[in-house]
Design brief:
193 residues, mainly beta
Length: 193
C-alpha cells in the first residue's frame, strides 16, 4: 500500500533567522504509458529536507534574505517488482538569495537567485535508470501586486541554466530553460480593520 504524508516543523530563533525541517511520503508514477492509478505502476518516494534562512531589512522599503536548502530523496520498495526498477537516491542542495523592494503602497518588485547541486547515489542497483548529477543557476524576477485589500497577484519570469555531468555512455550536456509563474490569492470574506 502506498502512503501520502507531508510533515513540517519550523523554528524561528530570532525575528530574522528561520529553520524549517520537512518530510514527505509520496507515491510516484513509473510510466505514463500505463494506467497511473495501477499500484504496479507506482513507487514510494520518501523525502527529508530542511532550510535555513537569514532575513534582513534595509530600511522601510527594502528587504533581503540569504539561505541554504537541502533535500534527500529515497525510494522505498512497495512490492517485489520494485527491487530492480527503483531510481537511484539523490541529494539536492544549495544556497539562495532574495531581494525585494516596495514600490508604492501596493507593488513589490523582487529578484531571486538559486544555485542547486543534485548528486545521485552511485550504488544504484543493476538495471535502475541512469541519472546524471547536475548543477543549476536560476535567476528570477518577481512582481507582486496587492490589487485590493482582499486580492493579491504575483507574476515571475526567469531562466535556469543546468549543467549535467557525464553519466554512463552519455556525454556531459547543458541546457537553458525559461520559467514563468502566475499566482493569485484572495481573502474574500475576511474583514480587515
Amino acid at each position: 500500500a502506498f502512503h501520502r504524508l507531508d510533515a513540517r516543523a519550523a523554528l524561528v530563533w530570532w525575528d530574522d533567522v528561520d529553520l524549517e525541517l520537512n518530510g514527505r511520503l509520496d507515491p510516484r508514477v513509473v510510466s505514463y504509458n500505463r494506467p497511473t492509478d495501477d499500484p504496479t505502476n507506482q513507487m514510494q518516494q520518501a523525502t527529508v529536507g530542511g532550510r535555513f534562512t537569514l532575513r534582513r531589512e534595509f530600511g522601510r522599503a527594502t528587504r533581503g534574505s540569504v539561505g541554504y536548502r537541502g533535500e534527500q530523496v529515497t525510494w522505498l520498495e512497495a512490492h517485489e517488482d520494485d527491487k530492480d526498477r527503483l531510481p537511484p537516491d539523490y541529494l539536492t542542495h544549495g544556497p539562495e538569495l532574495i531581494l525585494e523592494r516596495d514600490v508604492g503602497r501596493r507593488l513589490v518588485v523582487g529578484v531571486e537567485y538559486q544555485y542547486r547541486i543534485q548528486t545521485y547515489d552511485e550504488t544504484a542497483p543493476e538495471g535502475a535508470p541512469q541519472a546524471a548529477d547536475y548543477t543549476s543557476h536560476t535567476g528570477t524576477g518577481r512582481l507582486g501586486l496587492d490589487a485590493t485589500d482582499w486580492l493579491s497577484l504575483s507574476m515571475a519570469y526567469g531562466f535556469s541554466r543546468i549543467e549535467y555531468a557525464k553519466a554512463g555512455d552519455a556525454e556531459a550536456q547543458s541546457m537553458t530553460r525559461g520559467l514563468a509563474d502566475v499566482r493569485g490569492s484572495s481573502l474574500a470574506g475576511v474583514v480587515r480593520r
